[in-house]
Design a protein that fits this description.
The protein is an alpha+beta fold and about 900 residues long. Among the domains are: about 5-200, Jelly Rolls (Sandwich); about 200-315, Immunoglobulin-like (Sandwich); about 660-770, Sandwich (Immunoglobulin-like); about 780-810 and about 815-880, Immunoglobulin-like (Sandwich), CATH 2.60.40. A hairpin with a 2-residue loop joins strand 30 and strand 31. Helix 5 (about 425-440) runs parallel beside helix 6 (about 470-480), helix 7 runs parallel beside helix 11 and helix 11 packs parallel to helix 12. The protein is globular. Pfam families: Glyco_hydro_2 (PF00703), Glyco_hydro_2_C (PF02836), Glyco_hydro_2_N2 (PF22666).
């Protein structure tokens, strides 16, 4: 974490803040011109959270209902059309100072700031801190004298949601909460990041930064510290004295690895110093090694007196980019190389964690990063329609090996997707980009900058720096502020935008986001020759538990989106009813609809990942859309639900992203009786060394009995995919209406007793091939705990309870997609194995890890109150036919 002492840095966020709503302009003209009567406002003063957003304060005060239930968000749209005034007071600190600054780290969006009734200035920007010189005001007050601070929020600016014209974008406000396919319209307003008072001596460090590099062959690391020194005149100093900078680098054990001193003359305003570290402990992405962090510091001295200090924890690594193997000559470099080793990207796209992103807790960020790490993810793309995330997110990525693809705040709009050239917008974009570059460039996890999401100069044609002045400006800024990192003009970066079977044109592509049907889904992705797949997904209905939280019982039905306004309100784009009925036949109830929808989401997503991964490093990575969602959808492309529960697709992703993973290549999910089933078996390796490996392919009939088994093996090189052979067998009537193929490797989890997330389903009928799934109802689970709840290894402030269960199928037919459910609703839970299919008599051991929910925003309705007694977790196991 970067820490700057600036002699005194006083947080103001934890003061007693209040907020009140007004009609527009009323806070400026507080009395009627005609009557002189005070204009009181539309709400009373109420307690406010800072950082936070007005919506949560209104909810806590009882002014609005939970906007994430049913269609309640429609009742909240009045909030964005009011002005809101924050107020608090603080005491004038004692002591002398050369400069006093009042700093707002995040104002969302337009505000006027008053101190003791005097207007300090206006601010209209989410990402550039608002900094006001309050030196004279503080010097004019006695120590301990109260000072009143007011912030007048001027409603929200008019901006587009997902549908509109990118060329007419005029703000740098996050657009997703004006309405996107995975969100509602709930436009945040408030102080979304911290507020602090900074007291400077005669000089301070300005925009300090660190960059590292490593010479792996020479076993040497380079740590470059650079930035500026800002000087202030005071009564005791002219601000032009000679100063000294003392640099140090401590290894992960706290031992000095390197240090140096640098003299600054009165004319020096910049510094640049490189420390050499012998035999550095290298930082690696998740799955390739550890993430040791060094602590670097820069101390600014005037003689023996310390004026300022900046410390930061950083990893030492080299970062390079190269073109893919057999890449077209005009392709951009899409292979990331860390410490000389090419890294196959196994990524996820991250949306903002909540509509009210100012209220997101550190625990929520930690839970998302924990789930990434457990899913073998090594990159997160921070999407251009969202936000520049808070520093805590990047710190978590530094500590856990998650590379970051950071986009600037621009996105497609559908009607046109041309980057805006409006002069005022370009100025705002320049300021956002500069602020983001200065504030995030020191993070070792940061791997690439992108100009924005799906920016196109023409339909299906991504914009480039050569044809767009907006993106050319961003490229120049990255070159000036962070030249060690790659800049991509947009995602996807072309030369075509969307995935296609056409050869030679798919470099970095997006799409699709829905199951393409049988057999086209398998033809499209199985034959794609894309070099990089920076966004694609698959939609699936939410869990039964989430549906029951957001829908009134009368709406607990299986329904197409077009037939139900409440379901549509929570995910109009992602209706899967017709798709699922075509595969499974009639869907009798909400419970089975939700579960079979998640089967298709997992199946479709896994196939895309495996198809891409087979071509590494001709194809250099996948970034799935999307890890999370900012509000609870009835159906969406997310892997993890708003309330924190992983879906079946999460576990399918974890399996497909495993360091050693066996996969099956097929071209359709039906195989008629009398035909020959043929599929190729592959073994994928990432982050592990060359080894002899074996894979067993077991074929089960509809009744769960073993029909045939095959063994494959061979030498699997490190960081490669190996074709092990072809699986061939006759499809006989004895298999029944469907059959299963389970692949088990000789490494990793124990044998799966009939399959887990790497179980493949095939029907014997081209019409509703998965229909037998719904008639296989005779599974019966017996669950026994093998130990007591014990304290597990903590993760980033999350304390875990862990327990292992044995689950056995005592029924006469397969128990399909067995998974644990935490039933007290007080915990986030993750399991080492989930969505297993247990054949009759089959069993599996499942270890679960539970941590008390500590989310923010409107997730508070779904978790224990602060300070409440929390019972121990309770876990049940469900499968497809659970009631």
């Amino acid at each position: 974490m970067g820490v700057s002492s600036i002699r005194t840095q006083i947080p103001l966020s934890d003061l007693d803040w209040q907020v009140r709503g007004y009609w527009p302009w009323v806070p400026i003209k507080d009395r009627s011109m005609e009557t002189g009567q005070e204009l009181i406002g539309v709400t009373d003063w109420m307690p406010a959270l800072v950082p936070g957003g007005v919506h949560v304060d209104l909810f806590r005060a009882g002014w609005i209902e939970d906007p994430y239930y049913e269609t309640n968000s429609l009742k909240c749209e009045w909030i964005e059309n009011r002005w809101w005034v924050y107020k608090t007071s603080f005491s004038r600190p004692s002591g002398d100072f050369s400069r006093a600054e009042l700093v707002f780290l995040g104002i969302d969006y337009e505000a006027m700031i008053y101190l003791n009734g005097t207007l300090l200035g206006e601010h209209g920007h989410m990402y550039e801190p608002a900094v006001f010189d309050v030196t004279s005001t503080l010097r004019g007050a006695a120590p301990g004298e109260p000072l009143e601070l007011r912030v007048v929020m001027k409603g929200v600016p008019d901006e587009m949601g997902q549908i509109g014209k990118t060329s007419m974008t005029r703000t740098q406000k996050s657009r997703f909460n004006y309405k996107w396919d995975f969100s509602t319209r709930l436009v945040n307003i408030g102080l979304w990041d911290g507020v602090e008072l900074r007291l400077h001596d005669e000089a301070s460090l300005k925009d300090p930064a660190v960059a590292t590099d490593a010479d792996v062959e020479a076993s040497a690391g380079a740590v470059r510290l650079y930035g500026r020194v800002e000087r202030f005149a005071s009564e005791s100093s002219s601000g032009s004295e000679a100063l000294t900078l003392r640099f140090a680098c401590l290894d992960p054990d706290g031992v000095v690895a390197a240090e140096r001193e640098l003299r600054l003359s009165a004319a020096d305003s910049e510094y640049d110093c490189t420390l050499t570290v012998a035999n550095p402990r290298l930082w690696w992405p998740n799955g390739y090694g550890e993430q040791p962090l060094y602590t670097v510091s820069a101390r600014l001295m005037a003689g023996d007196r310390q004026l300022d200090e900046w410390t930061f924890r950083v990893g030492i690594r080299s970062l390079a980019y190269r073109r893919n193997e057999d890449s077209p000559a005009d392709a951009l470099p899409y292979t990331f190389v860390v410490n000389g080793r090419p890294i196959y990207v196994r990524g996820v796209n991250l949306t903002p964690l909540d509509h009210v992103y100012g209220n997101v807790t550190e625990a929520s960020y930690a839970w998302q990063v924990y789930l990434m790490k457990r899913a073998n993810v090594n990159m997160a793309r921070i999407w251009g329609g969202g936000i520049i995330e808070k520093p805590i997110f990047y710190e978590l990525c530094d500590r856990n090996g998650i590379l970051v693809w950071q986009e600037f705040i621009q996105s497609s709009s559908g009607i046109d997707n041309v980057p805006s050239k409006l002069p005022a917008f370009l100025d705002l974009l320049r300021r956002t980009a500069a602020s983001a570059l200065l504030g995030r460039r020191s993070h070792v996890s940061l791997a690439v900058w992108s100009g924005g999401n799906e920016l196109m100069s023409a339909p299906n044609t991504p914009s480039t720096v050569d044809d767009d002045e907006n993106l050319a400006m961003l490229q120049r800024l990255v070159a000036a502020y962070d030249p060690q990192r790659l800049f991509l003009p947009t995602s996807a970066s072309g030369p075509v935008e969307f995935v296609t079977t056409e050869k030679g044109v798919s470099h970095d592509v997006h799409g699709g986001w829905q199951y393409q049907g049988n057999p086209y889904h398998y033809e499209l992705y199985g034959e794609s020759d894309n070099l990089f797949h920076s966004e694609f997904g698959m939609d699936g209905v939410a869990s039964v538990q989430t549906l029951r939280k957001i829908l009134h019982p009368k709406n607990h039905v299986a329904t197409p989106m077009r037939g139900h306004v409440v379901w549509r309100h929570h995910g109009e784009w992602w209706g899967t009813y017709d798709r699922d009925a075509k595969l499974f036949g009639p869907l009798p109830d909400m419970e089975r609809f939700a579960r079979v929808s998640q089967i298709v989401q997992a199946e479709g997503l896994r196939f895309i990942v495996e198809a891409n991964r087979r071509r590494q490093f001709r194809q250099s990575g996948c970034i799935i859309w999307q890890l999370n969602e900012p509000w609870p959808n009835s159906s969406c492309t997310n892997l993890v639900e708003y309330y924190g529960a992983p879906k079946m697709a999460y576990y399918a992703t974890r399996s497909a992203y495993a360091p050693v993973h066996a996969s099956l290549l097929y071209r359709r999910i039906d195989a008629a009786v009398g035909s020959e089933f043929r599929a190729d078996v592959f073994l994928h390796s990432n982050g592990v060394e060359t080894a002899e490996r074996r894979v067993r392919a077991t074929v089960y009939g509809e009744d769960g009995r073993v029909a045939i088994a095959f063994d494959f093996g061979g030498v699997c090189p490190a960081d490669r995919t190996t074709a092990l052979g072809e699986l061939r067998f006759p499809v006989e009537a004895a298999l029944g209406g469907m059959f299963f193929v389970a692949l088990e490797t000789d490494e990793g989890d124990e044998p799966r007793s009939g399959g887990g997330a790497d179980l493949y389903l095939f029907g014997t009928s081209a019409e509703t091939p998965y229909a037998p799934v719904l008639r296989n109802v005779d599974g019966r689970l017996a669950v026994s705990a093998l130990d007591e709840w014990t304290a597990g290894e903590p993760f980033e402030g999350l304390a875990f309870w862990t327990r292992t269960f044995e689950v056995r199928n005592e029924g006469a037919s397969p128990a399909l997609f067995v998974h644990p459910v935490e039933t007290t609703n007080a915990y986030w839970m993750e399991a080492d194995r989930a969505y297993l299919t247990l054949m009759p008599g089959g069993s599996a051991r499942v270890t679960v890890r539970c941590t008390v929910k500590r989310g923010g925003g409107f997730a508070v309705v779904d978790q224990p109150a602060p300070g409440a007694d929390v019972p121990m977790p309770e876990v049940d196991f469900e499968f497809l036919h659970s009631s």
